[in-house]
Amino acid sequence: MILNDKNQNNTINEELINSYDNEYIFSNKPINRIKTNPKTGDKISLLQNLKDQISNIDNCDLKKNASKIVFNDGSLNSPIMIVGEGPGQKEDNLGKPFVGDAGHLLNKMLNAINIKREKVYITNVVNYRPPNNRKPEPVEINRYSDFLKKHISIIDPKILILMGSTAMEALFGYKIKISKERGLWKEIIINNKTYITMITFHPAYLLRQPDQKKCSWADLKEIRKKIDELKLTI
Whole-prediction pTM value? Predict the structure, then answer.
């Protein structure tokens, strides 16, 4: 991202957050010479298989409470993958993550660093709405973290953004605190591949604690900087 006046744009973007309102493959074989987006096709198949696994989960209080599975949203081939906590009521109604108040805020946060929501890939740690929108319990986080790791491997993002303590705990455990770990680039190995990861506050938390918006703005600027350093197209 090229800015003509960095300070001015930083101010404008900070105010925005604060407002809150056919590929050819050559082969010696006589068949399968032409494939259309094979990578996307593979992802679609793998994601459907993963979704079916989650849909068939047994003895889950989250599933019993929810009306439907909330699996994903956004671009399958995005270099950016965002992981939140779990669905709320609006997400449960619509079957998409981040469509309530926190979702509207997420959209503004992304816009502040010149990213459109539809250009990223979004999911949650748990795929069913917890009763009374409570935080998922440790046993639930651990259970769904296996699905989450498969999800990450399928999408294979260049940058992984974990929003909130639940997402952090699902991948990094319970011995660290988000207040100390947010804003720092970390590496996590999933299925023998290393992903660079940023932990930041969940938008729902920012709605409750608006004084923390300055911290999230700092995190967002680091994310934009990393996107530019890696020369990612988004």
Answer: 0.84
- pLDDT per residue as tens, the chain (234 positions): 444 555 555 554 555 555 544 343 334 444 443 444 457 889 999 999 999 999 999 999 999 999 999 999 999 999 999 999 999 999 999 999 999 999 999 999 999 999 999 999 999 999 999 999 999 999 999 999 999 999 999 999 999 999 999 999 999 999 999 999 999 999 999 999 999 999 999 999 999 999 999 999 999 999 999 999 999 998
* Structural domains of the chain, ranges and CATH numbers in brackets: 25-229 (3.40.470.10)
Q: Which two tokens stand for residue 76?
A: 């399958």
